[in-house]
Design goal:
Elements: E1 5-11, H1 18-24, E2 32-38, H2 44-51, E3 58-63, H3 69-78, E4 84-87, E5 93-94, H4 98-105, E6 112-114, E7 117-121, E8 126-128, H5 137-142, E9 152-155, H6 156-161, H7 173-183, E10 189-190, E11 197-201, H8 210-226, H9 235-252, H10 256-265, H11 270-280
Parallel strand pairs: 1-2, 1-4, 2-3, 6-10, 7-11
Antiparallel strand pairs: 4-9, 5-11, 6-9, 7-8
Length: 285
Amino acid sequence: MRPDLTVIVPFYNAARTLETTLHSLTSSFSFRLLGVNDGSTDESALLFIEWSKNKPWVELITVDQNGGLGAARNTGLAATVTPYVAFLDADDQWIATTGQALQKAMLSPSPWMWAPIKEVHQNGMRRTRSTDVPHTPEALVTGRSPFVPSACVWHTETLRDLGGWDTDPLGVEDLGLWIRAMAAGLRAQPWSTLPQIEYSVTSDGLSGALEKHADKIRYVWQTYTQQGLLAIDCLPAAERELQRQMARTYHKSSRFDLAIQAYKKSSQNTKNKLLRWLAWMHWVV
């Protein structure tokens, strides 16, 4: 029976984490797996090829020159022939129940579906991310977004109609997609109420270059306010929420001085004041 779902795993010099990501995938239900080697110069491609032996449902696409994560995802999207498509970054993992949950989701799929995630920090801390469920671009940027690329499932043609992932290296490839989807009137539906993806938070990723990542987020805000897809008057509240998120990341990483500074720039409600005090006390929460 032809599968309804393609899972795309883009990777670039990901030999350190790719093998663990691939071994987390379960073939307990029928899906197509498409790896996109985005110009890797390490052993990532060899690892993928070795893992994929005797797996006829797996295919590898190789891009000669690294084009960035958004472009790699779009390369996989262009090669997708199934009605639905999902993505799994090369440092994230499925858990034991993911395949079963996806199989159930395919029985009554929606154009855009999401699932909660469990954050896995380098210090061993594991926690389910607390989020809101926004339905407008403004609610997205001023609240706690639940959307992570590795935990979303898309109707393939819907994602293509939206233009796929952003590829501007100055921005963030996923935030622009969420904004465009909501501006188009799409409402994401949960494909699971429980975490189904382990999402890696590493010091050499988002948390290691947080200020740079924040500048990329602000660039996306500017881009989409200029396009009229995001109301400019929501940006002060969006900046306060961004500072809160930065503070939480610093706090979880025990960088207490940076956490305190960011908490001061966030909304001064009781919870954030309490968290700032806990950071001052050097208590990780």
